[in-house]
Automatic annotation (TrEMBL), chains A, B:
Domain of life: Bacteria
Signal peptide positions (record): none
Family indicated by similarity: Belongs to the ROK (NagC/XylR) family.
A Pfam family this chain is assigned to: ROK
InterPro entries for this protein: ATPase_NBD, ROK, ROK_cs
Classification via PROSITE patterns: ROK
Protein name: ROK family protein
Amino acid sequence: MTDYILGIDIGGTNTKYGLVDRKGNVVNEGAFATHAHEKIEIFLKELKKHVLPKLEGKSVKGVGIGAPNANYFDGTIKQAANIVWGDDVPLKKLIEDLLGLPAVLTNDANAAAMGEMKFGGAQGMKNFVVFTLGTGLGSGLVVDGKVVYGHSGFAGEIGHVSVNPDGRYCGCGRRGCLETYVSATGIKKTVFKMMADYTRPSVLRDVSYNAMSAEMITNAAKDHDYIAIKAFEYTGQIFGQKLADTVVHSSPEAIFLFGGLVNAGDYLMDPATYYMEKFMFKPFKKSVKLVPSSLMDRNAAVLGAAALGWEEIDKDKVIA
Amino acid sequence: MTDYILGIDIGGTNTKYGLVDRKGNVVNEGAFATHAHEKIEIFLKELKKHVLPKLEGKSVKGVGIGAPNANYFDGTIKQAANIVWGDDVPLKKLIEDLLGLPAVLTNDANAAAMGEMKFGGAQGMKNFVVFTLGTGLGSGLVVDGKVVYGHSGFAGEIGHVSVNPDGRYCGCGRRGCLETYVSATGIKKTVFKMMADYTRPSVLRDVSYNAMSAEMITNAAKDHDYIAIKAFEYTGQIFGQKLADTVVHSSPEAIFLFGGLVNAGDYLMDPATYYMEKFMFKPFKKSVKLVPSSLMDRNAAVLGAAALGWEEIDKDKVIA
């Protein structure tokens, strides 16, 4: 009988789940609305309703959960911007009690890193970094084969290194954090700056701030839209510079990029690679691969959450 | 009979050594000129002459070596700026053959981190960073109780994150690296900038660039010299900002500062702490200790090199 881990990825809008075997095959997938702005009891009720029937007749060894602002050490979610269930929600314990299975929790970017290592392009790698370019910019560091949690459990918040202390206002309360430039939201802000700076016509000039998406900007770039291409160049330049700084910290073998913005392909990868190499400390030049996640076309968030569960089993710790 | 590790710290000017027991007691200490700009055979001959007699009658289990640009993985020194023995010197093997003892090699900042963990203020800590403020700015990262070497063996080169891509020229060939601002050399450059920017009198205006030392700047600051105090503030501001960036990478419990510049005490620590906190990502605020190394008054370089040797014995790897 095949053993499975239940992988759960909790996003601000939707929660995805699936049963993942040791090889990364996913069965009994599904999704439901997170109800992030209601009481957590609603979320738990929905989770039970959707997931419990999918466990029947399966050998499920445990649960791996990825969520924003989740802390691996104490199993809680702290002050997440898009999930308002409370300041310090003991999610690991709540789900363990609900499903009667041992669980492990980490933030979504750490889960992505674990997924890349177990099932993706980082298989066999000991040192790498994953960036998730979504609404914000998440990151997961792997050093010597293990996800870095640090003293606090919150290591890998590279989206909050400073690009410019007088720069764009960030949701974290400071100014000029990397994620205000490099993320779906960041490139949208950059498009608005470019529309102010340049006189060129652009299809994007017909779209309001609230209506604009990273996908529209990507499509415009593919149609040779000057403003969109400039916005990708600007994004890639800032990203590349900061990637070079990340490399001198932990000396990764590769950096994986994940998220919708990565669908822009060379429009993002070319300037990011160019500026990463331009600003790279000499001993690391031409030695770090910058590549899209190989899980882009798969259920990466669920795979990552489940990979975390398998990791715990293999080190015989939380889940046994 | 007490067991010892021979600790050797190779600097651009002098090489220091000593026998270090498990508790960090040092005996048979000594030093000799490195002859860094002559052939390596001269260094090896000097090493043998000074060190071999010190090993007689002692139970020495192995050798720990700290040196600039040393690579832990392959035991070589690569293109060190101040030691011109060649591009790729197999120092670990040369010393093993010379002394007939197993050896392990790493760079001086990694050795300092290991020393802090085994014998200094980081005892019991699992996640911390050590910065060595000397001619340049070295750094050693410890994650989950282990020094981070990364994929290349050269992780922890935080002295080469970018402060300003159009800034001061760096020995590494780029511009605006952190070590061009935060190091003994960096603060000297800053004093010259401050003498240009301000009209205030200063004892430092009587000293040439080549004659000026970090110690003179420290002494001037202690005498309430305006230029010297401004230079420390400028140094501390840039350092503090970048410390906040380091914290979001690896989430250390503490950051230890080592080197002559740290003797300036509050003139450096106050602005560095103030700006680290000012730029700190909220979840880490007031949670990271910034403190001088507790090995400042001891033979820290030799302790660090020896700590590396003890670490290898304890994990039963290179030295057995």
